[in-house]
Every structure is written in structure tokens, then in C-alpha cells.
UniProtKB/TrEMBL annotation:
Claim: tRNA-binding is one of the keywords in the record: no
GO molecular function: 5-formyltetrahydrofolate cyclo-ligase activity; ATP binding; metal ion binding
Gene3D superfamilies the UniProt entry points to: NagB/RpiA/CoA transferase-like
InterPro entries: FTHF_cligase, FTHF_cligase-like_sf, NagB/RpiA_transferase-like
Name by which UniProt lists this protein: 5-formyltetrahydrofolate cyclo-ligase
Entry EC no(s): 6.3.3.2
């Protein structure tokens, strides 16, 4: 199998585990994410609007907004380009974006200090696998080239896969928050 085929197989397995975890979800993961985001109170924090069975970061983002953080959401400009981030107040209306996503139609473009990002699978060492668009890989690479940024993965523990295939361009996570634990890969 090529690495691309291995990624496709790993995505399919992780999606099935994620769907099971999503059906049984409680609010433990949200509480953990809110706790971690509290350490970045007052900073610019990017979230996402959950699609399919992704774990929902909005409850924690609302709490972060209440702590003086500015929230933003990813906006797709074009295929194979980094995401941009638009200011967002939790509860505001969203518009249809590309690839079945929802995104802010207006608002300032911000550079996030913290990026909370979804995934299909992660490994215990901070590697991550997304849907295959390479959007977050390109985006984190660009952000890391221009200054500090903290990449926080948010997922169900069931999405862990230590054997997930990785390429040299895959951008690692700094922190991982799940329904069961917080892992800091920086130490
Ligand atoms: N919630 C969320 N927002 C996100 C991402 C994500 O993974 N999750 N992204 C992370 O990169 C960016 C968008 N990238 C995406 C890449 C692929 C698909 C995707 O496979 N979508 C479809 C197929 C859509 C179509 O072709 O119409 C699907 O839901 O099956 C979605 C978003 C930015 N926003
Ligand atoms: N930093 C980068 N610069 C240029 N191309 C990149 C970069 N990162 C990834 N790519 C390209 O993006 C494509 C998809 O990458 P990959 O399969 O690793 O995405 P993913 O991690 O599953 O998705 P995402 O990052 O959107 O969550 C690959 O063809 C890869 O060549």
C-alpha cells in the first residue's frame, strides 16, 4: 500500500470509531477544552464549526469568549491554499462555505495565537490526520513561519491511532484535548 492508501484506510477506521464515540458523548471533553483555553484568556483563538461527527468545540469557545478571548473561525479561500481566519462571536449567523462547511461571511481577518483543530485520527506523539485536504497542514506551516502559534487538537480518545501514517509535511500538534485526557507534546 502507498502512504496515501494507508491514510485512506486509517481515515475510514478512525471515522467509524469517531461516530461511535460521538453517539455516546458527554460534556467532559468540553470542560477540559475550556480549562486549557483558560490559559490563553485574552488571546485570539480559532475554533471550527463541527461537521459530521466531529467533537463540538463551541461550548468551550463561548466560555473563552466570556474570558476576553477573541474567537475566529477558518475560511476556505481556494483549494491548496492556507485557511484564513475571520472574527466570530459565538451565536452569530454563519454562511455556507466550501466543502459543506459553515463560515463567517463578514468580519475582520485575524491571526490566531491558538488554533483548535478537528481531525479524524491522532497519535500519542502529536501526529494528526485530517480529511486529506492538507488545509490545516498548510495553515499551521504558514503560521509557524510567521510567529508563535499553539495548535490544540480536539477529538474523542477513541480517535487515537499510534500507527497512523504520516508524511514529512504533516504538522504536529502542540496539545491534545480529549474526553479522557490533556496531552502536552511540548514537554
Ligand atoms: N469542521 C471543520 N471545519 C473545517 C475543517 C475541518 O476538518 N472540519 N477543515 C479542515 O481541513 C477546513 C475545511 N476542509 C475540509 C476538507 C474536506 C472536507 C470534506 O471532505 N467535506 C465533504 C465533502 C464535501 C464536498 O465535496 O462537497 C464531506 O463532508 O464529505 C471538508 C472540509 C476548514 N474548516
Ligand atoms: N505545508 C504544505 N505545503 C504544501 N502542500 C501541502 C502541505 N501540507 C500538505 N500538503 C498537501 O496537502 C495534501 C493533503 O495532505 P494530507 O493528506 O496530509 O491532509 P490531512 O492532514 O489529512 O488534511 P488537513 O490538514 O486538511 O486536516 C497532500 O497532497 C500534500 O501534498
Amino acid at each position: 500500500m502507498t502512504i496515501d492508501d494507508e491514510k485512506i484506510a486509517c481515515r475510514a477506521r478512525a471515522a467509524a470509531r469517531r461516530a461511535l464515540a460521538h453517539a455516546a458523548a458527554d460534556d467532559r471533553a468540553s470542560a477540559r477544552l475550556a480549562q486549557v483555553l483558560g490559559e490563553y484568556a485574552g488571546q485570539v483563538i480559532s475554533g471550527y464549526v463541527a461537521i459530521r461527527t466531529e467533537i463540538d468545540p463551541m461550548p468551550a469557545l463561548r466560555i473563552a469568549a466570556g474570558q476576553g478571548s477573541r474567537i475566529c473561525l477558518p475560511v476556505i479561500d481556494a483549494p491548496a491554499t492556507p485557511l484564513r481566519f475571520r472574527a466570530y462571536t459565538p451565536g452569530d449567523a454563519l454562511a455556507d462555505g466550501a466543502l459543506n462547511t459553515l463560515e463567517p461571511a463578514h468580519g475582520d481577518f485575524l491571526r490566531p495565537d491558538v488554533v483548535v483543530l478537528p481531525m479524524l485520527a491522532f497519535a500519542r506523539d502529536g501526529r494528526r490526520l485530517g480529511y486529506g485536504g492538507g488545509y490545516y497542514d498548510r495553515t499551521l506551516q504558514a503560521l509557524r513561519e510567521t510567529g508563535p502559534v499553539v495548535a490544540i487538537g480536539f477529538a474523542y480518545q477513541a480517535q487515537m491511532d499510534d500507527d497512523l501514517p504520516t508524511d514529512p509535511y504533516d504538522q504536529p500538534l502542540d496539545l491534545m484535548v480529549t474526553d479522557q485526557q490533556i496531552i502536552d507534546f511540548r514537554r
